[in-house]
Task: inverse folding
């Protein structure tokens, strides 16, 4: 399997190279050159398999021959060994047609662990063969950073620098990033919002001299391997329901458009999905883009669902690439306009194409709190604010098809929002028990590229 850039001018790479590269050298994102196709027999046959077995079958065509079969199976087993729930991604029935897909049983209590644990093992295997070192830089609204630090801490061949917006992540998220003692991981708080962090990250990648000097690699959802890992739970959840080919809908709490884009690829390679529903908080650039056809950068407004406080969604570029029928020139043109003006208009045929796959809903702060409370009363289930946003949008969009809402994080990770909404404390998982007694290690920097570069060069 080969990978090409959404902007068309970066070199074509195999899976391993695309994974290690992160962002393409032309500023675009890697996508598979061709897509595999799974038929209904394949999907039915997954029903009796373990999560790891499904993961192997679904991901194998994307990985190609770069890892041997036994090696790749071992990587997958290692990756999901730290999940506390036996089925890794259990489905909980809420009502006749509505299910909650619990993606928060990994080591840092958010869905990011599904991809990050896998990437950690893939990098470890790959770098131990090549004897190379890489510098990983990540931008996070909270959960990517903690998942990356957990997955890469202590790895010899990797230094990890995570940029997060100071004061805009939850206390648990911050402590998960700042308390690991491994010397190869660095939490850096930036004086800015998530979009500033993500912009700094992209600027570091686009500085090709710096990029080559430190052997830069990225683990944000710009990295194709993350998307690939997330396709798996769309398949595992669908096949566990034994629906005989019936179409379903997924509602996905969305920020950087990575998780929902994995659902789109699942659909494209054969999973019977009728609609993917984008659920956003008050930072609604995606909702607006789908309603109006105008993609317009806004200012991030901090919310109680901080992992979705994003106004420039990296993976929307991949969605547009497919909506534009893989026209890389047009994608390049739109994103160079966007870099200059902060907006672009989606052409009508592309917008219509997007609307056949996606719809959207937006949830206010009050509605989010209300839904956290309602979920407890109505379904007896504790949800985090992001999941509540998904639940609200899903409930507003129920029809006679099965709906699966992605539960993206554990409520304990956002216990303040949970407490203020319900008046109760969420159940605290064991993994959090000593987090509050450990020392924190954080480097505070202004939103300044030169200073970020200097810190990285000093520490690798
Ligand atoms: C990252 C994250 C999201 C948004 O996912 P994207 O792939 O960025 O759209 C939603 N909820 C939680 C808890 C997250 O950590």
Result:
């Amino acid at each position: 399997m080969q990978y090409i850039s959404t902007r068309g001018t970066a070199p074509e790479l195999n899976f391993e190279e695309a994974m290690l590269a992160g962002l393409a050298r032309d500023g675009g994102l890697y996508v598979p050159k061709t897509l595999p196709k799974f038929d209904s027999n394949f999907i039915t046959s997954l029903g009796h398999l373990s999560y790891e077995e499904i993961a192997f079958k679904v991901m194998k065509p994307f990985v190609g021959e770069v890892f041997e079969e036994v090696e790749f199976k071992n990587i997958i087993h290692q990756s999901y060994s730290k999940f506390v729930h036996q089925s890794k991604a259990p489905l909980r029935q809420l009502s006749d047609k509505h299910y909650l897909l619990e993606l928060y049983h990994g080591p840092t209590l958010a869905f990011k662990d599904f991809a990050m644990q896998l990437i950690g093992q893939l990098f470890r295997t790959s770098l131990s063969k090549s004897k190379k070192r890489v510098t990983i830089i990540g931008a996070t609204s909270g959960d990517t950073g903690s998942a990356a630090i957990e997955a890469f801490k202590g790895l010899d061949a990797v230094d990890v620098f995570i940029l997060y917006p100071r004061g805009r992540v939850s206390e648990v998220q911050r402590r998960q990033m700042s308390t690991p003692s491994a010397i190869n991981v660095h939490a850096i708080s930036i004086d800015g919002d998530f979009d500033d962090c993500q912009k700094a990250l992209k600027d570091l990648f686009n500085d090709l001299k710096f990029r080559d000097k430190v052997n830069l690699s990225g683990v944000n959802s710009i990295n194709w391997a993350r998307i690939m890992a997330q396709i798996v739970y769309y398949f595992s959840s669908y096949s566990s329901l034994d629906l005989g080919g019936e179409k379903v809908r997924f509602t996905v709490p969305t920020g950087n458009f990575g998780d929902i884009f994995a659902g789109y690829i699942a659909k494209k390679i054969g999973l019977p999905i009728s609609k993917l529903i984008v659920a956003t908080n008050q930072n609604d650039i995606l909702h607006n883009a789908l309603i109006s056809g105008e993609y317009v950068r806004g200012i991030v407004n901090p919310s109680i669902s901080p992992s979705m406080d994003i106004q420039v969604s990296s993976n929307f570029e991949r969605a547009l690439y497919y909506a534009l029928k893989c026209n890389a020139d047009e994608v390049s043109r739109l994103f160079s306009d966007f870099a200059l003006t902060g907006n672009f208009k989606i052409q009508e045929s592309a917008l219509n194409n997007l609307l056949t796959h996606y719809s959207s809903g937006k949830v206010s702060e009050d509605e989010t709190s209300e839904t956290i409370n309602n979920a407890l009363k109505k379904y007896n289930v504790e949800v985090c604010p992001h999941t509540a946003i998904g639940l609200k949008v899903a409930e507003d969009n129920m029809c006679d098809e099965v709906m699966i809402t992605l539960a993206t994080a554990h409520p304990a990770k956002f216990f303040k929002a949970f407490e203020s909404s319900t008046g109760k404390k969420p159940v605290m998982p064991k993994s959090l028990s000593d987090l509050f007694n450990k020392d924190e290690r954080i480097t505070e920097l202004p939103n300044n590229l030169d200073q970020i570069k200097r810190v990285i060069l000093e520490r690798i």
The chain has 19 helices and 16 strands.
